[in-house]
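#structure-requests
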Amino acid sequence: MKLTLNAKLLGVLHAMQTKRSLLITEAELGLVEDWSKSLNDYYKGLPSELVEGLGLKRNRHCYRAIECFDVPQEWLEAKQDMLGQFSFAYPG
C-alpha cells in the first residue's frame, strides 16, 4: 500500500519514530522491559479514525513498516503544500 504524505500522516510517522527513540532509551535505563511491545501498544492506542483515515492498518505488516521507518529530514523540512510529492509504503 502506498500512501501520499500529508501533514497528519507525517505527524503519526514522526510521533512513532520519536516514541521509539524514547522507549529504546528507557529500555536501556531499565525503565521499560520491552520497547517494541510498548511501541506496539502506543500504536494500538492511537484513535482508529486517525489511523484508518490516513490509510494505515492495524496489521503486522503496516506496523512493522512504521516501527522501523525513519522520517527523512527532507520531509520534516518540506512546506506543508509540498508534502504530497512524498509517499509512505507498506506491504499490503
